[in-house]
Every structure is written in C-alpha cells, then in structure tokens.
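Batch job 17 of 40 flagged for manual review because the log was empty.
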Amino acid sequence: MKKILLFLLIVSFSTIFAQNWEKKLTQTYQPINDVFFLNENIGWAGGSAGTLLKTSDAGNTWEPVTLPIDGTVYSIYFLNEQVGWVGLSSDILLSTTDGGANWSQQAISSIGGNIYSIYFSDEQTGWALTSSSSVGEVWHTTDGSTWTRGFQNSGDMEDMDFSSPNHGICVGGGSGKLDIYYTLDGSSWTKATNPTLPAGMYTRTDIRGVTMVNDNFAFAVGWGSVAVGYQPSILIKSTDGGATWELMQQSTENAAVVNMYCVDFKDEQNGVAFGGGAYEGTVGLRTNDGGTTWLQIDPPFGFTGNTMSLIGNQIIIAGSGGGIAKSSDFGDNWELLTEVPGLTPYVFKFIDENTAFAAGYNGLVLKTSDSGENWTASYSSVDMVCPTINDIDFINENIGFLAKRNRQVCKTTDGGNTWVAIIPDTSATSFYNNGISFVNENFGCVVGRAESGISLMYLTDDGGNTWEEKIATFPDELNRVKFFNVNKGIVIGDASISYTTENGGETWTASTIINLPSTYTGTDFEEIYFYNENLGLLASDCLLKTLDGGKTWEYVEIPNLSDNLVGCVMFNENTWVVAGDDFVYKTEDSGTNWEDITFSPEIDATSLWQISKDGEGHIWLAGSSSSMYKSVAVVSVDENKPLPNEFYLSQNYPNPFNPSTTIKYSVPNNVKSEMSNVKLIVYDILGNEVATLVNERQKSGNYEVKFNAENLPSGVYFYKLQSENFMKTKKMMLIK
C-alpha cells in the first residue's frame, strides 16, 4: 500500500549567542611507552599521566587500571594476572599482588630518572633499569623490597632484557655514545665490546631496544636518520650473551633510516623491529635469517612505534598519540586498535552539511559523516611514509586531496578510505605543501615552500597526472590557496604575501593592504575563509577583510587581541567568528564590536588549532589531542546564503534511525524556468515505493524533510531524489 507523507520545512533565521560548548571528541589513550603480554589475549599498556590499560581479548578492547599516582608509566612486567610491577618516572616502582586493585610503592634510586625496564624471575627476585638524561643504573632485589645497585653508567640507558635469571643485557649510552652491559650471574655487570661501525657514517650511535632470544643470542636496535645525512638504523647482533657485537649492515634499497625503538624474535631466525618518525610514521623490519638481512614491512600508521609485544605470530605495537595496532600474521596485515589517536589538527573543514575532515600531525585523518556525532580515524600512509597533513580539499563526497609535508600530495576517490600519491614524497625536510585547492576533478593548485623563504607552487589541469612546478615565483613561503573557478584564485603566505590571478595561475598580481598598523607589517598570512568569491576574511596576527576576492584587504581591529588567530568563519556579511590559541570571538556587525564567547569548562584542550562551521550554523573548534568542540546553540542560519548551483542529496541523519530521520537536499537554478519538478521517494529493499516525501515544483534553495517510519519494519530502505536531469539514490537503515 502506497503511503503519502509530506512534511513542511520551518526555518528560523534568528541569531542566538553561542556561549556554551559541548565536547564531542578526544583522543582515546595517552601516548604509550610500553606494552606487555602474558599470552595472546592478556596484556597491559602504559603511558603518560598514569595511564595503565589492560586487555583480555588480544588488544581489541582495553580497560583502565587505576594507579595511586599520575606519573608517566615507562615499563610493565607481570608474572601472572595477579602479580606485576609498573615502572614510573621519578624512580618509582609500583607492585601489585591482586591484579592492580591495590599497589605498593617504593623508590628504587635517587637520580630522578625513569624506570625504563623491569624483569622479575619470581615474586622476590627482580631487576630494574632506571635512567636520567646523564646517568643510567641497574638495580637488583632478592626479597622484593631491598635493592642493590648493579652498575652505574655515565650516560642514559634505554632498555634491558633477560633470557634467564642469570643472563641479561642493558643498552643505551645517550647522544653520540654506545654503551652495552651484560651479566652472566645476575649480580655483576661487564661492559661489552662495541661493534665496529663504518667510519664517519654516524653522528649518533644511540641504542634504544634489546632482546635476548636465549642465553647466547641477542639483538639490539637504535639510531638512524636522514635529517643529518644518510645514517641507516643501527642493527647489531650478539651470539655470546652480549659480550661482543656485530653490525648487521643492510643494502641501501632495503635499509631503514629512522630510530628503531624495539626488537623481538619468536625464534633464532624470525624477528621484527619497529621505530619511526614524523615523516615515515611507523617503520617495521622483519628478518627470517637470524637478523643478517632485514626487509621493511608496512604498518600503515603515522604514530611512532615505541614499543611492541610478540607472541607467536601476533604483534602488538604502540606509541605516540596513544596509537595501538595489531598484526595476527607476523606483520603482513594490520589493524588499528585505537579508536581515536591523538591529533594536532592543522586543518578542519566541513565539505558538506554532514561530512567533515580533521587532519594534521602524523598523517592522521578524522572523518565524520553525520555532522560530528561519530568519527572514524585512519592514517593516510602512502608509499610507506606518513607525513603531516597541512591542508585538505574535496570536490565531492568521494574525490579529495591532501597537501602534506615532504612534498607529498595524495588523492582519494572513495571518500578518504584509501589514498594514492599524485606528487611523490621526498626525504628532504625543506619541502612543505601547505595549501591545496581544486575546483573540479581536473584543475587544482598546491602551494608551499621549496626551502626556507622560497615559494613553491604546483598547478594541474588533468587531476594530478601531470603538474606545472613554479619555484620562487613569490617573495616568500606560501601558506594557503583558494581557486573560485579555473581562472580566478588567490594565494597567501609569509611576509604578508597576498596575490590574485584571473588566468588560472599563469600570472599573479599583488594585493593591496589598507590601514594595516605598522605593528603587523610583514606579518605571516596563515588562513583565509571566503563566504563567496568576493567576500572573505584573512586570519593571522590580525584580521583582514576583502570585498573583491582578495585584490584588496582592509585591516579589521579586534580590541585587546592577545594572540594570533588560528582561523575564521563567516555566517553572513555581518556575522563572523574567529578563534585563537585559547579564545573565540564573535561579531554581528562586520567587526565593529566583538564578544568573547570562549568561556566553557568543556574547552579543556591545551590549545585550539582550527575553527569550522556545520550546515546547521554550529561553530566547531578543533584542539590538541583530537579534541573537538561544538557550540550548543546555533550561531545563525543565513538567510542570505548563496543559491546552490547543482542538485545535492545528503546522507540522512541519523542513520541507522528509529523511527524518524532527516533528509536534506538542494535544488539549483533552473535555466528553463524559476522552478524544478522535484520528487523525493522512499523504497524498500525490493523496490516497492513506501513513501513519497516530496512531489512538487520547487524554487532553487536548500531543503530538508523528516521521514517517519513508525509503521514500517526494520530493514534497509532507499531514498531517491529525482528531477528533470538529475537522479540520486542513497541507502538508509531502520533499526527498531
């Protein structure tokens, strides 16, 4: 039976002051320093701010364990589910005999260091490595409470491992040093003979991680860098219990060139090591010949792999931003276990009424498809690197682009699920892509720097298959670019750079700056926001306004501005909102008067980085540690919003729904008449029409209707928007 449901849309144009905020997101875990597993299912992870987590299902879910103090957790060791130890900052060791319900506390040393490693052979007999930046010590106990120092090193020590109660190795040394100690009786320690390293290859020789496979075979990893010349990761091996060591030199095409922080073997032949950096993200190495040769594997994550656990073929890695990931097949395939890793958001944009992206440090991308109610996280790892994202642009819900550091530009055709590089990366740290703008699938522009103070621009007219490169066209580095069509665009940058083009970037004309106080002369221009192709704002140390697409900028005073602006948004010609590191200001009269709308106990990020607005008129703030905040009240609904230039059908929200949901769509100008024939119809999974929501002629504008499915059964439904030359269908799910 056909059901006809027609709903009227009522829109309020009133402006409401937004003085309250709702926290919508934050990172799941603090940065992780150590993971320890008893078996494939039961394990712990520890990190900053007294973080201790426990899992009983192989890392799929984690529950917090309460510690009596908030010091940073650096090391974990458990004999069984009940008896364990946690090493913290300030030389503090915590112990539990009831699975973490209660803890005892003792100070191991007085050097003011961190307990980087713990090993216990039974409840009474154990060792602890504690280290400051200049002193490292290993301590030993035979009664669980009285500790004796085994040795002290004039340089920090990083890691320790035991194969049995009498056989252990400790590694470290600090900047420019390589110190290794070993014990054959558990009490006395001997300094090992260092491996021979190639002359002149290394400026530093830090060793960060060590494992003992048995009493004789051990492996250690450490320093590597391309920032100060080609210096491959240090991989060293011992076959005599740590007394002597040999460098496992790798071929250039396979060598890792990052700090490696951890290593482990499941037998004498098969091992893995992990490390990374801000450009590479997580770097993994794997060997099947006892560590003689290593090949890179590709954990597709941007966090640095600080620590790992290896049991059989199961690998758990963890590190910066609270990132935790798992492989169940010895590194071939990977799963991100952390729901929301930590993000410093250098860009935050709503690309339509429902979809927004936040992206930034470590190549992390956060996406919402339901106006910020739910977010998914992924790393934009491409070609085994994951540089920081500085800007993002989408031309529709599927096709988008990323501008990254280290020159890389990436493209997606599936809404950000997968990315490919359309400009390759480079290890040269001087290359930055800071801004990106595409007007269609073919024409786009990327701007940044080739090196300090030298501008860089790329232009494409074939979707990124080929690029025209322009270096040093502008007097300093470029930060943002905006093209309104294939001809008209604007670029801004350091040293008050602002240029416009009317011919697709072939030539550029310097903008005119009006009434800029001398205090801001030469200030770096960081962010731009355009309400339409003429009206826009520029945010930097101050605020500027343009009425002609950036050809002319005029200074707008914000009284008592205490810090630079990180971003700005416009709701109409009069209502603007700007944000800084720790404030949000609003004007409703084009900048004549300003109101501070910052105050809220919900805003607890250490710093704010970006501002955006959604289709409902809510302000959104993106802050440190993946913090997202939404204004509780609508700032304004813009009655002067430009008419849409194409049909658009949004995803219903909420979805799944019970029993009602909202569907939004746009109707463009009709070249034949003032109105278009519009139908919005709902079908069941068999194609039967179950509801006609709209069947009428409509003017150009933005619309929304509510669909009430109270009388329908649970299941999948489809809704179709149709007009003279347009048809679009989307899926929704009713769950009762």
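Reviewer: the log was empty due to a logging misconfiguration, but the result itself is present. The mean pLDDT is 92. Unflagging and moving on to job 18.
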